[in-house]
Design a protein that fits this description.
The structure is a single chain. The protein is α+β, with helices and mostly antiparallel strands and 429 residues long. The protein has a domain of 119 residues: Nucleotidyltransferase, domain 5 (2-Layer Sandwich), CATH 3.30.420. Helices cover 35% and strands 28% of the residues. The radius of gyration is 22 Å and the shape is globular. The structure holds adenosine-5'-triphosphate (ATP) and magnesium ion (MG). Adenosine-5'-triphosphate binds next to α6 and α7. The site of magnesium ion (MG) has 7 residues, from loops.
Length: 429
């Protein structure tokens, strides 16, 4: 069944959805129950009642075998996926058949494209929208790349630009601007195969920052211009929105593990101790560090005391490097001046003390830390920036599905077929 739905949606007032985030630090699975509208329901799909998702189970295990978004030990990942999904199923009391899986890494690419078609019967229906998106995706992609997403930015009907949903409009020429997101074919297939080996079928492979954005951003922020930066363990994932639509995305292969390595080298301690020191005492700004305070380093029986300012001195240059790279991304994509709603920092790395204040200084934009569950429907342990991606993956596509359901459902079913045929191709090769 499409979109990670694992119950019969036609008879019940609810259905289940599931997301799987295979991160560099943790592998996490979440299962949620969608508050499903009645048949014939014509309400707003964005309303709290329709499409709200109640998380009913989750499972998190330590990730062993993924570096900077790329699988380096497939057996380790298969085991971790199996374990995380099993734990989520146990707590939910349900069985996962399909899941939305996330992807990231330096191999991810993003390009803009344009599609044009003539409208046969003058009226734009789901079929015409699908055709114009197919026309836009017909660009030369190297054989070693897979298309992950074709995301409409806007539509133009008979020269009138800036249309977000042309369905039902009358015209003779339909155009669209899209963002095409691609990944290295081998890496995408290895991810799909790992899930298959763990006994999980993927509904959709979703770019991680799109999922994080789904979990965190409001429609108003997307309209005004906003960027979400997800600072994970191995990568920092970006998605920028303007005029309500995605306008740029990317991945930087720098994340929390670089900070940990810097501490391990700077203080000459093992990585696991460096990680603990970072979580307990880490601060990215010397001016924010507890100047007079000390930090206990090493095992309790044999610990030594160092000034906390030493740790900030190690972390500050790395944080500056990361934030400068993010600033360069905004400027080179010509988006810095358009981010009127500012920046949302998320991922575990956003929890480091001083990160938000430093981001405001370097990016010269308002910054907030984004945690999922602002609607109050989430278990407290998941209301943490580390789970933004997984929560977003779980619900990804649900609103579109509901929109299709509330109208005639046909458009959505056709989209689903396109997506399933894409996935079938990935599994075949
Ligand atoms: N309180 C904290 N202070 C500093 N860093 C933290 C804190 N909590 C978590 N982190 C860091 O966040 C990182 C993990 O974040 P997250 O769980 O979002 O990564 P991931 O999704 O597994 O990795 P990736 O997205 O790169 O694949 C680790 O480097 C961890 O050290
Ligand atoms: Mg992540």
């Amino acid at each position: 069944m499409p979109f990670g739905f694992i119950k019969d949606i036609s008879l019940k007032g609810s259905c289940l959805v599931a997301g799987l985030d295979i991160g560099s630090t943790k592998v996490c699975a979440v299962i949620g129950e969608v508050i499903y509208p009645e048949r014939g329901w014509q309400g707003n799909p964005g309303s709290a009642k329709a499409g709200a998702i109640n998380v009913i189970g989750s499972g998190t295990v330590v990730s062993n075998g993924i570096k900077k978004g790329v699988i380096t030990n497939m057996e380790g990942i298969v085991e971790a996926v199996r374990e995380a999904v099993r734990e989520a199923e146990r707590s939910a009391g349900a069985v996962v058949k399909n899941i939305n899986a996330g992807i990231t890494g330096g191999h991810i690419g993003c390009l803009a494209s344009h599609g044009v078609i003539a409208i046969k019967d003058r009226e734009i229906k789901a079929r015409e929208i699908e055709s114009v998106l197919e026309a836009a995706r017909a660009v030369a992609i190297p054989f070693d790349r897979e298309i992950l997403h074709v995301i409409p930015v806007d539509y133009t009907v008979d020269g009138q630009r800036g249309i977000s949903n042309p369905r039902g409009m009358i015209g003779i020429r339909l155009e669209t601007d899209v963002q095409i997101i691609t990944g290295a074919a081998g890496i995408v297939k290895t991810l799909a195969r790992s899930c298959q080996k763990a006994g999980i079928e993927i509904s959709e492979i979703v770019l991680n920052p799109l999922a994080s954005a789904d979990a965190l951003l409001t429609t108003d922020e997307k309209e005004r211009g906003v960027a979400v930066f997800d600072i994970g363990g191995g990568t920092t994932d970006m998605a920028m929105f303007r005029d309500g639509a995605l306008c740029h995305s990317g991945v930087i292969t720098l994340g929390g593990s670089n900070f940990t390595n810097d501490i391990a080298i700077g203080l000459r301690i093992p990585s696991n101790e460096a990680e603990a020191v970072k979580i307990k005492y880490g601060c990215t700004m010397l001016s924010h560090a507890d100047a007079g305070g000390t930090a206990e380093i090493g095992p309790a029986a044999n610990s030594r005391s160092i000034p906390r300012s030493y740790i900030a001195e190690i972390l500050q240059p790395r944080a500056e490097e990361l934030l400068q790279l993010l600033r360069e991304q905004l400027i080179s994509a010509n988006l810095h001046k358009d981010m009127n709603a500012g920046i949302v920092l998320t991922g575990g790395g956003a929890l480091m003390k001083g990160m938000d204040a430093m981001a405001e200084n370097i990016l010269e934009l308002p910054v907030r830390i984004g945690s999922p569950g602002q609607d109050g429907l989430l278990d407290e342990k998941l209301c943490n920036p580390e789970f933004s991606t997984c929560i977003g993956l779980m619900g990804y596509g649900t609103r579109e599905h509901l929109r299709g359901f509330s109208a005639d459902g046909r458009g959505m079913m056709q989209n689903i077929r396109v997506r399933i045929s894409d996935l079938a191709r990935i599994f075949r090769h």
